[in-house]
Design brief:
Elements lengths: L2 H7 L4 H8 L9 H11 L5 H4 L7 H4 L6 H9 L13 H17 L3 H22 L2 H15 L26 H11 L3 H11 L7 H17 L3 H14 L1 H5 L2 H13 L6
Helix pairs in contact: 1-2, 6-8, 7-8, 7-9, 8-9, 10-11, 10-12, 11-12, 12-13, 13-15
């Protein structure tokens, strides 16, 4: 990774990063910036960056959801047959899948609820895609693709105004939230603020997606150093979808930054 790319990923200039490398900064980078470096460089311990004593990144970012390991294992597994020789009927798989997407977009604790459903659903959909034949197999593969969230999207502008794809959130509605994220990732503070204002209180049907959009709006406010707006938006995100903000790394870093270096009245 080049210095230019790394600097861009953490929202700093190449010259700033060069001064860090040569120890020429008057003040060492604060913890939130170090965590951004860790994410960009994919390191698990800050000591790999600072050279000091061991400080695992998860001490500050928090653990993943308890159900994550089981879901990850199910995604990575590729069974070729059912353990008991039985294959789920496609109608049953479709009902389970529809239920999972309903939970995904309506439950404030969607990670916990989905964590109980997804491992078995993924396994059974994988088995069906392997074991069925002919047209039934193609339909089973479509169910599996939807379970993974892999089906190709259509261009939003060609969709009806009220159309909303429940398992990707793809719609005209979601384009404004996407614009906020793009501007934030490009570190365009003015554009991010404009897009956040433009998105306003976008009526996103999915509760978790609505919470994630609010986190992106908070990131946009952070670029302008509007600490009060950052805190207020994060509080709204927490009321909207508690599990979404609890397991979101960006939200954790913003809270940590406010606690460590925010205005005294907001700490």
């Amino acid at each position: 990774m080049t210095r230019e790319v790394l600097a861009g990923l953490v929202g700093k200039s190449e010259s700033w990063l060069k001064r860090v490398e040569k120890g020429r900064l008057q003040q060492n980078p604060r913890l939130p910036i170090l965590l951004e470096f860790a994410e960009a460089l994919r390191v698990r311990d800050l000591s790999e960056i600072t050279g000091d004593q061991s400080m695992p990144v998860r001490m500050f970012t928090g653990p993943g959801h308890p159900a994550l390991a089981a879901v990850r294992a199910a995604v990575n597994a590729l069974p070729v047959q059912a353990a008991d020789g039985a294959v789920q009927p496609l109608g049953t798989l479709r009902t389970r899948l529809d239920r999972a997407w309903q939970i995904r977009h309506s439950s404030p604790d969607h990670r916990t609820a989905l964590g109980a459903l997804l491992p078995d659903l993924l396994r059974d959909a994988q088995v069906a895609a392997q074991m069925y034949r002919g047209d039934t197999r193609r339909r089973a593969q479509a169910v599996l693709a939807e379970t993974y969230g892999l089906t190709p999207e259509r261009v939003a502008g060609r969709l009806p105004a009220q159309y909303y794809q429940p398992w990707t959130s793809f719609s005209r509605i979601i384009m404004k939230p996407h614009a906020v994220t793009i501007a934030v990732e490009l570190h365009k503070s003015g554009e991010a603020a404009r897009q956040a204002d433009r998105a306003g209180s976008t009526a996103i049907p999915s509760v978790p997606r609505r919470g994630r959009h609010l986190i992106e709006v908070a990131r946009a406010r952070r670029l302008r150093r509007d600490h009060s707006a950052v805190l207020g938006t994060l509080q709204l995100a927490n009321r909207t979808a508690p599990e979404t903000i609890r397991y979101n790394g960006f939200a954790r870093r913003m809270v940590l930054e406010l606690v460590e270096a925010g205005p005294a009245g907001l700490r």
